[in-house]
Each structure stands twice: as structure tokens, then as C-alpha cells.
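Minutes, methods subgroup
Present: GH (chair), OT, SY

1. OT presented the first of two proteins processed in the latest run. Sequence and C-alpha cells recorded below as shown on screen.
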Amino acid sequence: MASKSLTVDNKTFDISYEILNASCKKDIIFLHGWGSNKDIMKNVFSPFLKDFRHIYIDLPGFGKSPNEYELKTEDYVKITNEFLTLLNSTKDVIAGHSYGGKVATSLNPKNLVLLSSAGILEEKSCAVKAKIAFAKFFNALGLGKITKMFRSSDVSSMNEGMYATFKNVVNEDFSNSFKNYKNNALIFWGEKDSATSLESGKKIASLINSSTFISYDGDHYFFVKNAKDIAKRVENGIL
């Protein structure tokens, strides 16, 4: 494991990362989802894709990459792109899980691999709608501290900068970003995913012209049990 310091828009970030198969000429970059870290991706995919230099990254605010700034997805894209430039990455393949899928798409790699990507707005459950309504009510009364009890488990332990970041990115509609991606895409999904529905995956596939869609029996982390097959399909399906 290593760390690189970089500055983007007058903000300094220390990015934790790990590289495997360092002598390989082609790169595959792995971007984790919200609330996750590079180790999950590394533990799953490191035994495979031996012809690629693997680059595992902790996005700012996750794993061992600290962050207290309020960010937007466009900031994550800038930061990740600058980081990959420092590593002289060719961005042959970028694989993104959940929130990492939005960042991966915006980086416009030669080959895009989406694993139950976020980016399609879905109808919120009644429970979530109720939490949002209560939080807005207490905020209007100037009782902001009380709203912390209504926060999602995804952000309950995060600092204020990351909570603000979460609010910035959670309801983004990336439909146009998917539609505007013109390169090769492999889209993998869990058929029982309750975080990003199977229908969202099918919609993303319909938006990206040059895409292949494959689903597996599993939830939001379906790729843990299907990494070998996914890796084989990536090897056979990239340009």
C-alpha cells in the first residue's frame, strides 16, 4: 500500500492506493462504492486479470484517503484523473462499483466496466421519504443537531464535509453521462440488488450504445462470488 499527495482546485488530498502486476503494460483501475474501500475490490479481483496492472484506489473520504472538504462527483473525477496522470495510467479499463461507476463513466476510459452502478434515479421508499421530511422539518426549526438521528447509515459516522458530499451526490441523474459515453462498456449486475435495481442496470445498458449487459444471481455485492466469470468476460470483451 502507498499514498500520493496531490492538489486539485487548491485542495490537497492524500490518496491511498495499491498496485499489483506493476510490470504489465495495460491498466485496469478499480473504484469502490460509497462507504466502501479499495480492499474489498482488491480481495475480490486480485487473483484474476493477470495481464493487467491493477490500480486500487481509496477515493477521498473512504478507506485510508482522508477528506473533510465538501465535494461533488465532478471533484472526484478531477481528483481521480489527476491521480491517474501521476501514475502515467493509460486508462485501458476502469471498473466502478455503485458510486464508483459514476466516477468511472465520467473518466471516459477506453473500456468501462460497471458493477451495479449508481446513477439512475429510483423511487425512494416511504421510510426514506419520511426521514427526509422529518429532517427538513427540524432544520427549518433550527434544530439541525436532531437531524443527525435521521441520517442514512451510509453517512452516520462521517464528518460534516463528507455528509455534505453525500447530499451532493446521492440524487444525481447520470442518464446523460451514460448516453454520452461512446466507448466500449461491460455492465454487470446482481439480479436481487436492492440498492441499485436490475431495471436501472438495463436502463444504463440501453443508454450506452456499445454495451453488453450480464446479470448474476446475487445482491449489490454479487461480484464477490462471480469475480472469476466477470474477469474472464472482461478479458474477452475489451477493445
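2. SY then presented the second protein from the same run.
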Amino acid sequence: MASSKKVVTRDEWERKLRDVKIRKEDMDRLVMNFFVTEGFVDAADRFRLESGTQSDIDLATITDRMEMKRAVQSGNVQEAIDKMNDLNPTILERNPQVYFHLLQQKLIELIRVGKISEALEFAQQELAPRGEKNQAFLKEIEKTVALLLFEDAENCPYGELLDVSHRLKTANEVNAAILTSQSHEKDPKLPSLLKMLIWTQDQLDEKAAYPRINNFSTAALEDPAI
């Protein structure tokens, strides 16, 4: 019951928050981590100059990574593969699933523009051998090739493969693989901390009434509901 909850006033809550000491350097590293992981190279460079915070990877490589991600998002899959091999040929060797999904996306793009003969040849030469070794890959190949059986492929049972969201999914895999190869986290830390804050507040709601943060863009505290 709400009446049995501990009530924490705004003054008491803010006093406890002030007692928590967080170093500016740690906050700056969180911000830099977000800029680098998400590919905001200009923002990362300005932040480096303004705060003195150094990135754990060369900022010049962010541009290359974003070019590969954009290439996949625009359907230029072979360009992304070539650039990845130029950057580091071991990335795709060590990530066969990412390489398969790139090849699958290339097949999808051939089907999208109606190059049926080329799509069938590509599927047979590049994807089929991988499907023979991996059952999960084989199922993905079958779903992709099935697009050829429908006149209105976008509205068929596997039409989601032609959606731009599938390009984005593959592009994000590419982004993560490159970051991992550079010994960098594949996901930014800041969103994870926000998720942890939401979870913590949800748990605390069961035990106490306290000034809650509901608007994360302003981080404003709201008076507890009593």
C-alpha cells in the first residue's frame, strides 16, 4: 500500500544526491565513449579539444567506420565489404555471421532491383556453400530466395527483408564488428546507464515515495506522490 511506503522529501533526496561524488573526468569519458561509439566524429573532436578527454581509438577511424555503415544503409553492400577488407581483412574472417549477413544483404539488394538471374547465381555461388555448413544460414537463405516467388515481394511473408530496417540491422552489425576489432565496446555506456536508472527507479517505487526523474532530457526531479 502507498501509505506503508517510506517518504523521502525533496530536500532529503537532494542532500543525498549532493553527497554522491562523481569525478568530472569520469563523466567526460562517458560522453566521449558515446560520441566515438555512435560515430559522431566532429563532436568527439570538439569535445576532445574542449575537455582534454582523449579517445581510446584514433578518431580518424570513425569516419571510415561510418562510411561503411552508410554504404550498407544505402544498399552499397560490396562497397562496405571492400572497405572493411581494406581497413582490416581479419574482421570478416573472425565474424562469419557478419560476413554472411552482408552477403545476404547483397542478395536482397539484387532482388530489390529485379536482377533475378544475377541474384540466383550469387545465391548459388556465394551463399549456398555457407548454408551447407550452417543450418541457421540455410534457413536465412531460403527465406531470402523465397522473395523471388512473389510478384509483390514487399508484402509477402518475408517482405521485412526488403525493409530499410533490415539494412540498418546489418549496418549495426558491421559497426559493432569494427568496434570490437578496435578493442572498443560495441555499445555506448550512456544508454545502458539510463536503462539501469529506469530499472532502479521501478524497483524503488515499490518501497518508497521519492523525487523521481520522469523526463530524462531535463533530469528534473518531481515531488513524490504521497
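Chair's summary of item 2: The two ends are 11 Å apart (CA to CA).
Next meeting: continue with the remaining queue.
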